[in-house]
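PROTOCOL LOG
Step 1. Enter all chains and additional molecules of the complex.
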Amino acid sequence: MLGKFILFYLINYIFADYLPLDGNQWTAINQNKSITTKARVPGSIYSDLRNNGHLKEGLLVGYNDINYRWVARDNWTYERSFDVDSKLLSKQVVNLVAHGLDTVSNIYINNKKVGQSVNQFVRYKFDVKDVLKVGTNTIRVEFESALHYSSRISKWHFDTYHYEIVGECFAKEYHGECHNHFIRKMPSSYSWDWGPAFPTVGIWKSIGIEANDKAIIRDITVVTTPDKTSGTQWTLSLKAFIESDSRKKIDTKISVSLDDHLLITDQKHSLTPASDGTVKVEFTIPIKDMTIIAWFPNGVANNTQKLYNLKVSLGFDDSKEMSEQSKRIGFRTIEVIQKPVKPIGLTFYFQVNGIPFYAKGTNWIPANNLQEDITPEYLRELMESAHKANMNMMRVWGGGVYESDYLYQLADELGIMIWQDYMFACSLYPSYPQFLETVDQEVLTQVRRLQHHPSIAIWAGNNENEVMVRLGKKEDFERHKKDYIELNINHIRKIILEEDTTRTFVGSSPSNGDEEIKEDWISKHSSDERYGDTHYYNYDRPLWDWKIYPSGKFASEYGYISYSSIETFLTVLNETDLTFPISDAMEHREHHPGGTKSIEKEIGYYFNHPSHGGIERFNDLVYLSQVIQAMAMKIETEFYRRNRQIDEKTGKGNTMGALYWQINDIWPAPTWASIEFGGKWKILQSYAIDFLKNNIVSVYEDNNQTLKISLIRDDYGGKEVFDLSLKVYKWSSNKPVQELIAKCQSNQGFSAEVLFSHSIPDLLTKSGCADRSECVVKVDIPHFQTSSFMLLNEPKNSKLVKPNIKLVSVKRKSHLDDKQQVFDITLSSEAIAPFVGLDFKLKSGIKGNFIENGFFIFDGMKTITFETKSNVTEKQIKDNLLFKTVTDVL
Ligand code: BMA
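Step 2. Run joint prediction.
Step 3. Record the structure below.
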């Protein structure tokens, strides 16, 4: 296990001398010394107490988020001893470097204070040359409870400045903690509307002693520029940030290579570090003798995610010392195009290598409250699920953490562009000098760490804070505005734009993009449909009606809540907690105020509620809630994808991005996620594979009872001629009662156009359907391998017939490789079976993904794909498969 963590956090440096202090030789002790536990670095106190038996139950079980809150109210000291040899100590510079301290601490070596930390997101470096000795040394990191600190600072701020900062406490339903905006720590560690409070403390990233006589390379940032004429020739501009804490002039020789090609060999640079010991060296290198393959997002243009290994080596004429940094980089340009539209507004779309693309994807929250509990395998699984769902963009939301290097590496590899928020969310923040100073260090640390990733598409200052400026007391508006602009614009924005010339920065998400500059950064309406990005949620109205959704330029957040499967809930709750109506234990996990009622209301629009009962009835509720969510996201996303036209009257429309909220979960709970905590897909995740495909057909009802069929093409091809089939079925039968075949033509790719319109009443009459309750519509365009369906009535008001679904066969399709097996599962039905949900019996032990789930069986037979990493047989699948349709809900 430990090896995994070391690998995960492995940092790509070769130092002149490096003594890692990671590992499990640490001890953690609470304030009154009543608890002493073994401890691990990287890690934190909650996991140390759990792993060593001080917390008896799983942290996420039952009410343990509250029961174990005492951990976060105590102060904890981490300590260990370590040996230092004379060689290390003989170096000119000897620093303690901590890549992540969470959060407020004093650090001592051999009982002498060497530094302090106040920011989880800053890399700290302390000079320890004079306090270390040859032989055994001790290090002690004394953490103050984050909760104590933030409430202390909140009080101090009010006493000093006499006004309140919006966002002190969240809704009581979060069962969380107040004042997260007064500490630079993962905001959602104080709880969120999808997550519990575990405001842990600890050394959450690598820590060690670095020693050198000369200098080291700390970071590399890159700019890749294509030659305008050739298209395949690129220039690589790079900055190497060198730290030379002896602060003397140094004569260096620097080499740069790309894969096996040496681009620069031992080039001499005489460097004079600034007073803080840093010095930057810049190179502009036209790449010759190498054909560069450009990097593209998943599914865009030629769909290549080619990465190159960039290595920068620093040597010295008068010393054998060396320092080296390697990064995987990609060659690409990225722009956000904001051009005026008529009569008013600005476009907002992404263009990579000069090619505009439709951003399709989701939002990411921290995969665990305790970063040390996230394995590389789990991260890969989540990111591969995003890739599988045809996503090309994911927003790393601003209330979590700047993610691990590995997440961005996976994004580079899989072609998932990252909309990167800075970690400030859903509140205002102070702007007193020490706060701004630590934020400056944070932004510099993070922008230099992340800048080289080809996947990063845009920077945003925060999540939804601009909106907050207008909340709160009227008389405080000017002060709030001043704080907001000082922090987000004069500090965060300024540093990012100095460090990275290649990407757009928006003040907040959502924002009005370039327009917000005219609005002095605080717009009247930051989800304005004429500019920038929008966030949209609705918990009241029927969500399968596309007309309620905003016609903005870029939908960066929209979503709806559903329950996780009973399998996932049983990892943290008892069977007796899984009931309908829902239990107190479940309600404890519903942090969204009014969430339970909203889910019931939404179900009630479309389905009959399950009858009251235990786990089986709760299971029905899970199923219906997941169908509601999946359909809502399908309908909303298809609308955003169809909505390419600008409305000539209002300037609204031309939506060019759809990132639903949210892909992952932080614990088992009713939330917006499409993947449950632990990795099990909800129905929505399987739906996303289909509604995010490059080319899809979308069928919907427009005004005056008109059925419309649109084709959305995200390919870049030309004219295509093809057949479109529209079938009308009676719910009671397997055979269509009507089939229309239309010869269609689509003139160009990267478009959305209406192919077909027809009056619904006329279609019903022609098909012999008595009314909307009797029939359902299916549409296919085989040429683009896409099909869809449209309900003419709510399922509860339709004449559904029990379809008598049967499992026909399970066939192993292939052994893709040792790790993954693919099975075809075939089901039969005697009538139209809507929203067929698949799952396995509890305790079957079979884990894997149904590529389609919540599907319709139209023609009596349906084969779907199941992918698994489990070593299962056809028979095991047969024996354990469960299926359910709407008429099975009791
Ligand atoms: C948005 C997000 C999150 C939140 C989500 C669901 O506002 O930015 O803060 O979790 O909605 O309410």
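Step 4. Note key features.
The chain has a mean pLDDT of 96.
The two ends are 45 Å apart (CA to CA).
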